[in-house]
Amino acid sequence: MSAASLPENEPCSDCEDRLDSIVLMTCKTVATQLAQILLKARHDLQIHHANGPEEILGMTGAEPANARLLSFGTTSIVPAALLRSFRFGAYNFHPGPPSYPGWAPASFAVYEQAAEFGATVHEMTQQVDRGAIVGVALFPLGDNVEMRQVFATTVACLIKLCTGLAPALVQSPPLPRLDIAWGKRRTTRKMFKEYCALSPDIGQEELQRRIKAFGYGDGYSVPTFEAQGQPVTRTRE
Questions:
Q1: In this structure, are residues 151 and 137 in contact, taking their beta carbons and an 8 Å threshold?
Q2: By the 8 A CB rule, do 195 and 211 touch?
Q3: Domains of the chain
């Protein structure tokens, strides 16, 4: 295992009650961008990168004392014990608004022709997308919106949230909670797979709607026709 530090900085004071490091759980490219944002808010901060929980454990060895975890655009589940070990808490940048907690929110929003979409920052808990919300950014969804546009705008919202919250994220106190509740329905990988299962008698309008929303897949499923018991993947345009 190897986990990189981004970048090398002067250690901050040895005060046990002060946040001195942030662990970014995301891909290396995004971690570099987020590190630049956070270091503008506080130049003496120690910033580390990990692709997942296993790397966090290997990087810290024991409790990540005086640290805060930021998860950005990852589907990794962090064990409850590891979450609790972060003295200054853990926050997740969720690629969807509070009304769309769960798996692949953009696909479900497009399929359901939602009026708006966005991004959410929330406290991480053992239960996915249930922690208190500390930041939200929204944008309208047009009638003819394309998934690539939704993805790009959502990422822009996440970066905007990180930039706006950076002064608070790099300091010891927990971020103020917003009086905003999560939606009651949480989408799942199983639900995504079910929408990708296309019956031979599906109507043209419904077919196009599903291809538009789920055609990019989720890393596990893509729209597929069931023909004589054999899945036949439909090629996307």
A1: no
A2: no
A3: 21-169 (3.40.50.170), 189-233 (no CATH)
